[in-house]
Amino acid sequence: MAASYQEKLVMFDEVLLAPKIDVDKLCAMCFDGVPDTRNGTRSLAWKLMLNYLPPGREEWKTVLEKQRALYRQFLDEMIIKPGADHLGDDRKDVTFEDHPLSTNSDSQWSQYFKDNDVLLQIDKDTRRLQPDIGFFQQATEFPNQALQDAANNIETLRKRVEHTMLQSSDVAKNRLGINITKCKNLRISSDFGHEILPEGQEAHWEVLERVLFIYAKLNPGQSYVQGMNEIIGPVYYVMARDPDVEWREHAEADTFFCFTNLMSQIRDNFIKSLDDSPEGINAKMIKLMLMIKKCDIKVWLRFQEQDLKMEFFSFRWLTLLLSQEFPLPDLIRIWDSLFADERRPQFLICVCCAMIILQRTAILTSDFPSNIKMLQNYPATDVHVILRKAIELKKYL
Fold it and tell me: Which residue among 92, 130, 319, 388 is least crowded, i.e. fewest CB within 10 A of its CB?
């Protein structure tokens, strides 16, 4: 018999207040969903399930102080100090060896322009994150004081994108082989459909912009790939809405490490050269198709008849952990179960298969255009029905 709502609250409190967290028991409870009115419970549970916090509560203070100090170091080295160095129209340390047109791979200017390319994509993606709920466009109650204090005169990432004239150079050779450099100024538009906050404030999307930029700098082989914003958004949303003010104050650093741990498990999805590896995205799509064949041969045959390939829709489902297929509250409920399952990638395939099987009638009676439209814009469905079906399908793994 399922526990009542109040009983679930008591059970979560008993587990999370214990001197040493029984992570297996916590995961079993989270798999059935974390009570929505206890956002602090979900925030703490996700930190534990994503291996940011150890099970022993006595270790938390030391771990949190160490990790948050490390994040402040990353912030200082990659954003605050460069933000001070690059203010103004000219750099004072331009030399013959290191100048804006240098082709030297070790050039600071070369790295600066590469970082700009990454930053522009991050900026565009984070500004438009979850526009329907408006949360990410609102001001955070804990802006970074070092960056926002006008007296420090530090260039924030937002200012680097919005308020500076990015100078690009077109270098060509004339018929005599002489380099001709044409410089042009490009203004980056700030029109993203929402108001820019006053000086001294910063929106939640700006916090995520920093986190993703630091992640990209620390992972040059992977860098930033479009779609990572969809993964980090829900994690930060849960952390930043914790009722405990101390947890909220450190949501940025905590999100960075939770996101980094999550990405370590799904990073192959974002590296194109690993698409065909045993854990790559193509292998996951093949597993999904094989599961459909095992559990419903008629649906599988329909896919073959219509040449309805997995990459047309499930590439996005699997890569982004369904983050674009459901409203945020429903997605968070799905992630409760996903993070709690010890076979996380396999359970995601079960959820995707359940989504398809639950649309069996529509798939068997509709033509190709209708089916592809439906799968690319999945109809509103009770996520609990999907999760129950996914659990049933685990036997086909």
Answer: 92
| Chain Cα centroid distance, residue 237 | 11
- Strand segments, DSSP code E, in the chain are 165-173, 179-187
**The pLDDT of residue 101 is above 90:** no
3-state secondary structure of 142: coil
Render pLDDT for 141-185 as a digit per residue (tens, 0 to 9). 999 888 877 667 777 787 777 654 344 434 443 434 444 444 444
User: Using an 8 Å Cβ cutoff, are 200 and 143 in contact?
Assistant: yes
The residue among 125, 122, 116, 105 whose CA lies nearest residue 82 is 116
Q: What is the DSSP string of 206-259?
A: HHHHHHHHHHHHH-TTT---TTHHHHHHHHHHHHHT-SSHHHHHTHHHHHHHHH
With beta carbons less than 8 A apart as the criterion, state whether 3 and 11 touch: yes
CA atoms within 13 A on the CB side of 350: 21
Residue type, 194: H
* Distances from the Cα of 293 to the Cα of 45, 290, 298, 299, 301, angstroms: 35, 5, 8, 8, 8
In this predicted structure, what is the pLDDT of residue 377?
97
CA distance 57 to 355: 38
φ, ψ of residue 215 in degrees (nearest 5): -60, -45
What whole-number distance in Å separates Cα of residue 254 and Cα of residue 235?
10
pLDDT score, position 253: 98
Mean pLDDT within 345-350: 96
Going 284 to 285 to 286 to 290, the CA torsion angle's sign is positive
| Residue 71: both structure tokens together | 């994040």
pLDDT tens column, 119-133: 999 999 999 898 888
Instruction: Kindly report, residue by residue over 361-380, the tens digit of the pLDDT.
Output: 999 999 999 999 999 999 99
Least confident of 116-130, 234-248, 375-389: 116-130
Which whole number is the average pLDDT over 267-288? 91
Average pLDDT of the segment spanning 306-314: 96
C-alpha separations of 336 from 6, 30, 54, 240, 325 in Å: 19, 6, 18, 17, 16
The HSE-up count of residue 177 (CA atoms within 13 Å, CB side) is: 0
Under a CB-based contact definition with an 8 Å cutoff, are residues 142 and 207 in contact?
no
